[in-house]
Description:
Layout: E1 6-12, H1 15-27, E2 32-35, E3 51-56, H2 60-68
Antiparallel strand pairs: 1-3, 2-3
Amino acid sequence: xxxxxxxxxxxxLNNMEAELALSAxxxxxxxxxxxxxxxxxxxxxxWLSGIxxxxxxxxxxxxxxxxxxxxxxxDATDG
Length: 79
């Protein structure tokens, strides 16, 4: 397996926002993962340092564009 450079495109302070952003990227076809230091979910208070949303470096610009798109923005197929 080849080495992949991962970059953080956002840092979240709560799990719900991080999971929503992860879902948005996956829906757009961008593979992503969350990095958090919470002892495997046992110590959620350790999230104080934030939850990083990681993507491949070559996907960073596309991921940022997806995350920067307002939720209520019209879709390209809307007339």
